[in-house]
Every structure is written in structure tokens, then in C-alpha cells.
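Observation: inputs received (chain + adenosine-5'-triphosphate).
Thought: call the complex predictor directly.
Action: predict_structure
Action Input:
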Amino acid sequence: MITLERVSKTYGSGGRAVQALEDIDLTVPKGTIHGVIGLSGAGKSTLIRCVNLLERPSAGRVFVDGQELTALDAAQLRQARHQCGMIFQHFNLLTNRSVYDNVALPLELMRESREAIRERVMPLLELTGLADKARQYPAELSGGQKQRVAIARALASRPKVLLCDEATSALDPQTTTSILSLLQEINQQLGLTILLITHEMEVVKSICHRVGLISDGRLVEEADVGDFFTAPATRLGREFLNDFLELEPPQALVERLEAEAGPHTHPVVRLTFSGDSVSTPLISRLAREHGIDVSILQAKVESIQGRTLGLMIAELMGGAEQTRQALATLESFDLHVEVLGHVQRTD
Ligand SMILES: Nc1ncnc2c1ncn2[C@@H]1O[C@H](COP(=O)(O)OP(=O)(O)OP(=O)(O)O)[C@@H](O)[C@H]1O
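Observation:
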């Protein structure tokens, strides 16, 4: 439904040029919810604005529903943009228009009759839970209600694609959940394809089918959400995951960590395991086979789109050779092992 082919975007020129996107290839199949996550300044907003050509790519081609937007003239593009609804972090509502009139606006611009507009707007207000707010003004609404108006307005022209630019970043966690549920409902009921950008793993985890990770204008990793959360392919992906799971070693331990192993140190490891390895009795096996005592410092289990993900930070307490063998055993399993550092033995 959405295809970007080798899309690049440079702002400015000469010594002040900023390359915001570089050779982005992206395909979002019809009816799916695709997330793009990245740190601030990575190029997320530029990417999503290149889809409906609010920003024109410096190079590359953009297709929506088989039509190449980058090949259209201005009038054709205005028409084609009806295929792409968009919502924003700060809602972008017209403050001097009522809820009803905000949602009606795209239809007025398309010169639809008052009757046709009414027939379209009222069901959208029902769908977004705003039927009783039609005559109110944006200033009288909560953030979540404003975003619902923006969603209804984005759907008014019957788009095939909804672009969401950090749509929940200005909302509290509870309101975020209700807006994400609404987006999911719209995706399922209307078969709408959704491309969203976010810096929040929670958003990706909650509703996306696939996710891309953008860094310095490049798409560095792309995967199904279950795979991304259980086995990110890049270091940045793993950092996002560790932040999301809040599985950082406690500060008191960080202060004791040494980079190099010494004659009297134990390694501290972070283990991430998914699928079958979750149920493997690892700790008893390390004790039985290698004589290692495992001191668990932190642990947690998450369920992500039906897949189980286990995490643990642990100190492996044994002699140097036993510890080396224990690490080799751990690495032979279907799990990710990271040695965070070494601590002096206290035994
Ligand atoms: N209009 C512009 N003119 C010049 N540089 C720009 C412009 N818009 C964005 N940039 C630069 O392009 C890069 C990517 O910016 P972009 O806004 O796409 O990132 P982002 O991932 O959306 O960041 P954030 O999450 O902070 O909004 C940044 O270095 C930014 O400074």
C-alpha cells in the first residue's frame, strides 16, 4: 500500500546541508500497522512527511496504493492526498471551528454537499466516541478528545492510509492506551493501512505488526514486532529494548562493575531469552553441570504479541574456568548473553 524506493532527503545546501534521510526502502502492506521508531533527530518526522509529500524527497520514489506520488503535478497531488489521512502530536485542530466543523472541513474543501457531509461526519463522530461533542470547540476538550477529533477529520475523505506523527506523545499513559485502541479498531474495522512514527516502544508493542528502526536517516533494522522485541538485530535495537524493559543493573552494582575480569572477579550478565529457552531450567543446569551459583539481581517476564520474553541480570559465582564454561553453555542456547562487567568476589 505504501512503498518508498531509495528515498533521500537533504535540507538546505552547501556547508549547511543536513541529510535527514538516506536511501530509505520501505514497504507497508495493505491493512497492516507499521511503526518506525528512532531517537530524536533520527529522521522520523521527515520520513512520514515524505509519504504524502508534505516534504518532497530530494531523491527516490514514493508510491501509495500503486500511484507514484513523486511523479504527480500539483493538482494531481492535491487529489492523491485524499488517500492519505494524517494526525499529529499537537492535533492541529482549527480552534474557531466546532468539533463537527473540524471533521467536515476536508469534505467542504472537496465541495461535498451539506447533506453528504452530514452523512459522513455523524458516523465518524460515533466511531471516535464524540457524538455528544459535535457542537463543542477544541478548547473545551481534553487532549485525548482532541486527538479523536483529529482522527475523525483524517478519516473524513475515506483515505486508504493513515499517517500518525507521534500521535500519542502529548497524551498521558491512560489516554494513550485509549487512542491506540481506537487506531487498532479503525485498522481492523476499516482495513485501513497505518504508518506511525514514535519514540515509544510501548506504542510499537501495543499495536504494530511490523517495525523499522531509523538512525541517522537510515533504516537500520526492520522486523515483525515479536522478532524485534525478542531478538533485535542491532545494538540500537537492543538499547531501545533494554530501556523499555527497564532492565538496567542497579546503581550500586554499576558502581562496583569493572570492565576487565580479574583473578578474583565474577561476571555479571544480562540474559534475554524467548520462545523455548524461557522454559529451559538454565540456572539449575549451570549449578549441576558447572558448579556455578547464580545470584539473580533482577528478572522479569513479558508477553509480546503472544511471544514470551524473559530477562535476567545475574552474577555467575564460580571459579574462572567454571565460569568460562558456564558462559559457553549459556551462549549455546537460544538466548542473548551480554557480559555487563565484572565484580570483585565477596565470598
Ligand atoms: N526544515 C528543516 N530544515 C533543516 N533541517 C531540518 C528540518 N527539519 C528537520 N531537519 C533536520 O533533519 C534531521 C531529522 O529531523 P526529523 O525532525 O525528521 O527527526 P525526528 O526523528 O522526527 O526527531 P524528533 O523525534 O526530535 O521530532 C535533524 O537533524 C533535523 O535537525
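Thought: report the result.
Final Answer: Residues 265 and 344 are 4 Å apart (CA to CA). The radius of gyration is 25 Å.
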